[in-house]
Specification:
The chain has a domain of about 110 residues: Immunoglobulin-like. It is built from six helices and eight strands, in the order H-H-H-H-H-H-E-E-E-E-E-E-E-E.
């Protein structure tokens, strides 16, 4: 199975879930890597999560290109795996160890907070939807790059869409924090990756 999208225990990771939801939006499920469809068919919980993300995103306009599906058309010596591995190995994607450790635990996540978008580790090219379930009307959002420079901060409503171009966000790894009052209730990450569309 593709190591980028599956954990070491063979479970589809957040990047894989995001890619499957994108494939549904782009009508490209048949172009997913080997093992995706077979795995999801046997994991209804994962499929429900994918469908939830799909419904959250389907009202948005599709971008003109997609880093994974575009890369299927490049030559064998520049495959999707090679392009992504090169991107993920760049300085702009070096993880911040303290945040990575915090995301592995539960201290920074309110157990009753149900976030629907974005899912951690997803790749974005133009816009990012921030959405959650429940009765919380608005949250304070802070986004930092992997050098911990704040690139966006503000109070947002449920369903807020962030424009990457308007906020001058370069390709790389970003961490986001949802803050309610004085408490951080979610710490997550995403990647900005424009691939061949740059």
């Amino acid at each position: 199975m593709d190591s980028i999208y599956f954990n070491t225990d063979g479970q589809l990771n957040n990047a894989g879930i995001a890619l499957y939801a994108d494939a549904m939006l782009w009508n490209r499920v048949s172009d997913l890597p080997d093992g995706f469809s077979d795995f999801v068919a046997t994991e209804p919980t994962v499929m429900r999560k994918i469908i939830h993300i799909y419904h959250a995103l389907k009202t948005q306009a599709l971008p003109s290109s997609h880093p994974y599906f575009d890369a299927l058309m490049v030559s064998d010596d520049a495959s999707i795996d090679a392009l992504l591995q090169q991107f993920l190995g760049s300085d702009a994607c070096l993880p911040y160890a303290i945040y990575e450790a915090e995301m592995e635990g539960t201290l920074m996540s309110a157990p009753l907070f149900k976030q629907s978008s974005p899912i951690d580790g997803a790749y974005f090219e133009t816009d990012i939807l921030f959405a959650w379930g429940g009765d919380i009307a608005e949250l304070h959002l802070v986004i930092e790059n992997n050098d911990l420079d704040v690139v966006f901060e503000g109070t947002i409503e449920n369903g807020f869409t962030l424009s990457l171009s308007e906020n001058d966000m370069a390709d790389g790894l970003y961490y986001y924090k949802f803050i309610q009052g004085e408490e951080m209730i979610r710490l997550g990450k995403f990647y900005v990756y424009r691939g061949r569309s740059k």
